[in-house]
Every structure is written in structure tokens, then in C-alpha cells.
Amino acid sequence: MKLKITAIILTHNESSMIEGCLNTLGWCNEILVIDHNSTDETVQKAESLGAKVVEFAHSSFARRRDEAIKHATGDWLFYIDADERVTPTLAKEILVHTETAQVSALKFKRENFLYGFLFKHGGWEKDWVTRVFKKTDFKEWQGDIHESPLFKGEVTTLHSSLIHLTHRSTEDNLRKSANWTKLEAELICKAGVKPVTFLTLLRKGIMEFLRRAVIKRGYRDGLVGLIEALVQGMNRIMVYIQVWELQQKPDLPERYQQQEKEIQALWRSEKEL
Fold first, then answer.
1. Which helix (H) or strand (E) holds 235?
2. Which one in 104, 161, 210, 273 has a CA-CA gap of 20 to 30 Å to 4?
3. Is 69:135 a contact under the CB 8 Å cutoff?
4. 223 CB contacts (<8 Å, ≥6 apart)?
């Protein structure tokens, strides 16, 4: 008996990318979209292309991935993002292994295109992801930002790659950064860190840039590699600026509330203008 495969996509305002992703998933038996408060046409486009949409809002990516399992009817689960694309060779490999291999999960390399260029350095070239799982052997996803799968059994590594079309513009980059840097700052703050200083911000940003550009040889990707390394350094600074915000006592909302009260008090004490 041929086993069924359910493709699972987490979405949030992915109307510009969802159609291209779905067009590479025709070989799957079921396509399931878990949508997180999209305000654009993501849901409508997904449904018009035959996907089943479940609206489930949660800040944790792991929690949203786990929610999909409740609605998937396939024997195998294939997790893919809206900005990722399956090639015909990868699809064939997945089908062969899910039908014949005695394994619990499939792992493959991800080719990352940033600012329109394929990155071969800077740490992007060693991006291996485990995304296909036998449903009966899968347990859960762990981690709020960089989530990882928990399952029993063995993993098989495939030869074909998954295409990742990310960081499509500076605006796109900033939009994504605004979401994940906030979550990471909250996790760092909960873990307990020393008070953030100006030197902390400089050190974090410079070290991340050097790690990407020099240690991981991002400079070999040319100017775009250096730009991406710089963006990653800036993102690291943004994480720790938000850690600094969370460390403030009284916190920022309280400070602004106090300013508001003082201004209103001035107007109440003013008899005439």
C-alpha cells in the first residue's frame, strides 16, 4: 500500500511566496497550512490552490508545528516553509525513501539564496535540515525560535537539496528580524544575563560580523556576503538592545505612563490658557 505524505507549511503574511511553494508540492497527497494571523491574501491563495488551512495563532514556532500533527492525515510529515522550494529530484528522492526505506526521518541540505545570490560561505553552506518524518515515530518539536525535531528511529541523508529563497530585500530582512530578535531577547532575558552595556552591544555585533565574514569566510561570497555578515551583526545588536529594554526598571511602558500622567497633571492645574 502506497503511504500518504502530508506537506505542512507555517504561514504569516506569505501571500507573495505561498503560490510558488504550493506549485512544487503537487506530488504530496495532502497540503496543510497552519496560519498565524495573516492579514494579507495568504489564506485565500492557499485554499484556492487546494491546501487545507488551519488558523492557529501562537508565538512559538514549535507549538505551531506540533499543532499541524493533529490535522495531518498522512503517514509521513513533510515540513516546508513558504519561502522554500522542492526540486523534482528532491521530490523523487523523498517518494522513493518514504515508500521503501526502513527509516524514521529524512535529512537534506538547504541551498540558501540571499539577496538573489546562492551563498556558499558564511555558515550558509552547511545548512542541513531534517524535515520529513514517519508520523508514528515523531514526538514533538522543541525550542521557541530555532526549533528542532524529537523523534525515534534512524535518519537517512538525501543527495538532493531544498531551495531556500530568503532575505529577498532589506525590507524583508528587517521584517523577519523584528519578529525573531524580540523572541530571542525574551529567552535570553529569562535565562538571566548581566546588565547590557554599550560595550556589550559593540562586542556582540562585531563578533557576529567577524564570525560570519572572516571565520566562516563569508567574504568569499563577495560584497553580498559582507553585507549579509553586517546584517547579522546588526541583528545581534538588535537582540541585545531589546534585552536592555527588558532589563529596565521601571520598564519602558511604565516610564511613558508616568510621562503621560505628568503632562495631564499640568493641564489639570492650568486654570486658563
1. helix 223-247
2. 161
3. yes
4. none
Place of cell 492525515: 73
Residue 25: phi, psi to the nearest 5? -120, 20
| 62 and 12 in a common domain | yes
- The helix-helix angle for 198-210 and 223-247 (nearest 10°) equals 150
- Identify which of 87, 86, 104, 128 has the alpha carbon closest to the alpha carbon of residue 3: 104
Q: Any bridge partners for residue 161, and if so which?
A: 109
Phi, psi of 130 (to 5 degrees): -105, 110
Cα radius of gyration rounded to whole Å, the chain: 22
Half-sphere exposure of 230 (CA within 13 A, CB side): 8
Closest CA to 243 of 193, 174, 177, 179: 193
Residues 192 and 214 in one domain: yes
Contact by Cβ (8 Å): 85, 24: yes
**Calpha distance 58→179 (Å, rounded):** 13
Cβ contact 42:13 at 8 Å: yes
* Domain coverage including residue 235: 170-258
Task: Convert the pLDDT of each residue in 6-46 to its tens digit.
Answer: 999 999 999 999 999 999 999 999 999 999 999 999 999 99
Q: Which pTM value belongs to this model?
A: 0.88
